[in-house]
Specification:
The protein is an alpha+beta fold. The chain has 3 domains: 220 residues, Tetratricopeptide repeat domain (Serine Threonine Protein Phosphatase 5, Tetratricopeptide repeat), CATH 1.25.40.10; 42 residues; 110 residues. The chain contains 14 helices and 8 strands. The protein has a 5-stranded antiparallel β-sheet, with no helix packed on it. It has a 3-stranded mixed β-sheet with strand order 4-1-7. The protein is globular and about 75 Å long.
Length: 393
């Protein structure tokens, strides 16, 4: 099985990361580079120095480097807060998203991203120790599914900044995508655990660690990671979806000893047959920046799930406003519009996100729209939809 993990929405997310997230990651480049070179030089002289002298000098240099890095910790907390659970949608393991030609070299968005890759490469030729450019390069390669190149660039960024939770999590996710397996790679787990120790509020790390533990049938550990995540979330569809995953872990624990200890006092019994199969889609919805200037922000955005084949009536519908984008929306059987027509009764679905100028769910000329799918509800637990086209008469 080789799911298509990323589609054109990933390009838009990557561009947003370039111009919104990474300005938060800046730090004094000259000082960092100088200290890193001193560390490299010290390592080359390890055979010439007394062990205690080497250790003392390295500790002093690492301390200086860490002092430079500390101001960026605020930026990562901000990233986790701003992104909220957008990373969760990208973290889910078996996602089929977008149109088959979405990542075609002829796609204008991909062409623009490849032009950005050239600009970054030219910048790195001038300054090969530029953390920010290596990070941008890794995110760009990741967006166009060149995971080997993405991993290389992110490793270089992590070499420059060894204590960077954001890069650790992105590298872990890249390795996960590259493996195309049903388990988190061991290196990904190690990176995520380190990131969670350095930044306990890193929501993406907590979510992925829970997924990895669940895949290994370590349901108590999965529940612990997700409980830590749940405490950071405000009420809403994303939190409800995380709690549904926690319930699934509790149900699995019910098959073995110690499960009852995980259930809070008075918690209702859970039916594994019903909870274990009910699909929940965490859908990332974003708007192409090209359309932002012409919108007021109060326009209604409909997220609609339909069967890939069969009746055209919606299986689930949610609505937000343009000002809420980008956002993560949870779809489940609870969002069904017609009795008997729901997500769990269909094997494949198509998602449509539409900015309705008139405020009605029926498509009209001038509305803005994006699609993702077909998505298998057996394999897929998350999706991305980029609103990037205009309906014409």
């Amino acid at each position: 099985m080789t799911p298509n993990f990323l589609a054109i929405a990933a390009v838009a997310v990557a561009v947003a990361v370039f111009f919104v997230v990474f300005p938060l990651l800046r730090k004094p480049r000259a000082e960092r580079t100088q200290i890193q070179r001193q560390l490299d030089a010290l390592d080359e002289r390890i055979d010439e120095l007394d062990a205690s002298e080497y250790a003392a000098q390295r500790k002093a240099l690492r301390s200086q480097l860490q002092q430079i890095q500390e101001p960026r910790s605020v930026g990562f907390a901000m990233i986790a807060t701003l992104a909220l659970l957008v990373p969760i949608g990208t973290a889910l393991l078996y996602t089929k998203v977008g149109e088959p030609d979405a990542l075609s070299p002829e796609n204008p968005a991909v062409a623009e991203l490849r032009a950005e890759l050239i600009r970054i490469a030219n910048s790195l030729e001038r300054d090969p120790d530029d953390f920010e450019q290596w990070a941008r390069l890794g995110m760009a390669y990741k967006a166009i599914e060149e995971f080997s190149s993405a991993a290389h660039a992110l490793r270089r960024a992590l070499y420059i900044d060894e204590q960077n939770p954001f890069i650790m999590v992105e590298l872990a996710e890249t390795l996960m995508f590259a493996s195309q397996g049903a388990r988190l790679p061991a290196e990904s787990v190690n990176l995520l655990e380190t990131a969670a120790r350095l930044e306990p509020q890193n929501q993406k790390a907590l979510w992925l660690l829970g997924i990895g533990a669940f895949q290994e049938s370590n349901y108590q550990e999965a529940l612990a990671w997700w409980q830590q995540l749940d405490r950071q979330l405000s009420d809403g569809s994303v939190r409800n979806s995380v709690r549904e995953q926690m319930q699934r872990a509790r149900v699995r624990l019910g098959d073995g000893p110690g499960a009852s200890a995980e259930l809070p006092p008075g918690h209702p019994s859970l039916d594994a047959e019903t909870i274990g199969v009910a699909p929940v889609f965490l859908v990332d919805v974003a708007l192409d920046p090209e359309f932002e200037p012409e919108l007021a922000g109060s326009e209604t955005v409909f997220l609609i799930a339909r069967a890939a084949s069969g009746p055209r009536a919606p299986l689930a519908v949610q609505r937000v406003q343009v000002r809420d984008l980008p956002t993560t929306i949870a779809l489940s059987d609870g969002d069904a519009m017609v009795d008997g027509l729901n997500l769990s009764n269909h094997t494949d679905i198509v998602l449509t996100a539409r900015v309705s100028i008139s405020g009605t769910p029926e498509p009209q000329a001038g509305d803005l729209e994006g699609h993702a799918g077909p998505l298998s509800i057996v394999e897929a637990a998350g999706a991305r939809v980029l609103i990037n086209s205009r309906l014409t008469p």
